[in-house]
């Protein structure tokens, strides 16, 4: 019994569209698919075409149709045009080059490329040019090339585009199409012309040799373009009064490629470009499309400056166009040219800035990028006003980029420090939550370095905190500043604006508020706790601060807990160190990279170490003490570590130069007192448990102990050892004893090392050297000298009342230290100084 | 051009022409994402957007969105003209084309597109020539076995592309 004829395509479509639910539709489709499948099994030639067409419809709805792939091939092989048409369509929709089955098409296509009917040939060319794989292209390139030379323009134009596809798939085959391109441009047929230009463009883009070869076509292309512009109305190709805009645009694009970097070609096209730029009708999109392409070409080739200005002015006019598409395109192009033609683009700055208020997101983004590119020292104030206004009102997606851009621009062109700080404040308060994480350390550094603005900055930040504590970057920067400059805040020192009256308790209220607020992130809490701690040396409300710190010693947040515990320890056991540890931060040197500078990172905010660790070699000292150190050392190769304000008893410093070189014999100096004669109250390497680094075990000391300083009753002795596990680090233990009648209080040992050295000073046992040699202060110093630089050592003492330069200096030389690859890990640094002077090697 | 999609305001696909080799799964994914993105655009926004590393040019004609993905060096404004030309061709062929025409005659829509573009580039810039080729090809159809162009009975919910006529004549 013969199966009933499969339903027609339109009927199926109508039926499926009556389905009211997805499930109903699915059911209909499944039923029809089953029918189609059985029809395919029957190898029914009559209805195959209809069935495949139905399958294609169902495929578009999203249903699987792979079982129809082979049927498409059968249709392609059929002699009926209708079958071929649907078959090729099915192949283009259902097959892709990954599947082997499409290779079966190759033979059919080959036959059809040679078919007697041009429409069949057309189908084959179209399919090959749309989805032909590399293998197919290789097999059929010859046929395509043949058709490229035919006089039949219908086929020729298709063959040209098919050749483009072949070249894209198999670039090596490009050569074989070269002969056929010979007189492509002499065609009258626009279709052929257009596709030929596309083919030539593809070849020139891919091969520099082809490019040079085709440069000779420039005059011909110019002529064709000229004819298009000058010729009268041609109904066949007219679009709103413009003759064949598609062809014009493609020619302009090819000219761009040919003229780029080539003076002669650029000159040859100069006139026509000017002509197109000035004569093209701009009332409709089509005219603007041509102008757009012209501008791109002018900017890319070696055009004379008048032409370039003309191009940028076209873009400027585009910016004023009502059509947002035109504005968009203008901004995109201006972005490309702003680097090379900066001044010309600057002239359109106000229009560009107006585009910041545009409703379209893409236009706004481009306007923003372009605005940042146009900011310079002259327009910074005006531009920043606009950009800040934009920041206020723009979408959240923009805020991060805009904020970063503003920071960068402000850094580069800030007319004054005050303006800079104000701008930053504005960004933090309006878009504080969108600011990038790395901005916080950068801002802190900027604020630190603007010494004269500290009072103003902290006041403004404090006021901002009173308003809003939700924006974390703002809160973090503010906490840090209050911690640093809280004393300026309560003392009402602000010069730039009316100083506010605020008490210590109010400030602490705010900071404590941050600690408890739900809005604060753990990082922010860390900032505020540390700030509170710092205020212990600037405020007098010590008890309150101690209380806060001890409360957080049992905080659930481990980070916070650790900080609190360490700060507590600072109060209890190391109170003598507290002032120096928490003193004002020095100016930080910015590293060359764009990222947060190392110095800022070691600010103690981002890690849990108790002290504000400071990176050794990169700090430059603003204070005069540091200068004193440097003076003695003379030269740039020594870098003082940290300054301290802690004085020792006045003593005229002096000492002898000891030379440890040679056979360990000491020349011209006092005989060193053996280390053992100095009574020690504590073992020299007792650490406070805050570092887990083992000090040293005894390895035979290569360097004998020596007296570094012996004057006015103060004797400082050095004993040397090699560190274990790293024997390349020398460990120096200093012992300071005091034979005078009075205790030496606030004794501090300072050290400065040449840049090639690495130094670690561990906590001293005490800062009081008891009188009558009743005890000593010991301190451990670890030194690494990877470059084996000899160095001298100069002890010096300070006095609170005068900074005296010791008249007699007793530097001594440390023995060569062996080179080591290990670096001392940046650990806590104590505030002690020992000056070393690098000797000439 | 890498691909062209036609879809309704409800996100239903009416035509998809791919000029780059991608597997079905990828095509579906791209289609889904892009349709969502374009449908989310507000009327005041411009016709261009960046999506992945492509430029997307789209335009709405009555109830249908025409959406093309072009490459960096392609001219967005002329692509709008390409889309418009295609709509004009459909309009001429179907006579005041509407979405239903394209639904019920989707294969014809493809044939017309394939006479206008090949491999993503325009092969014929004359409207007349494209239409002539289609007409001639249609004559080769053996009426016995194929679906001839039936006139579609107007359905109560048919959306017309009436605005097409206006845009065509004033373009």
Task: Tell me what you see in this structure.
The complex is a heterodimer of chains A (841) and B (171). With 841 residues, chain A is α+β, with helices and mostly antiparallel strands. Chain A is built from 33 helices and twelve strands. In chain A, the strands form four sheets. Chain A has a five-stranded antiparallel sheet, with no helix packed on it. A three-stranded antiparallel sheet of chain A has the order 11-10-12, covered by helices on one side. Chain A is elongated, with a radius of gyration of 41 Å. Chain B contains six helices and seven strands. Chain B has helices at 24-39, 76-94, 99-104, 106-116, 127-139, 162-170, and strands spanning 3-8, 13-18, 48-51, 54-61, 64-70, 117-118, 121-122. In chain B, the strands form two sheets. Chain B has a five-stranded antiparallel sheet, with helices on both faces. In chain B, strands 6-7 form a two-stranded antiparallel ribbon. The model of chain B is unreliable at 143-171 (pLDDT under 50). Classes of the chains: A alpha+beta (841), B alpha+beta (171). Chain B: It comes from Cyprinus carpio (Common carp). Chain B: It is a peripheral membrane protein.
Describe what is shown at a glance:
Chain A: It comes from Cyprinus carpio (Common carp). With 841 residues, chain A is α+β, with helices and mostly antiparallel strands.
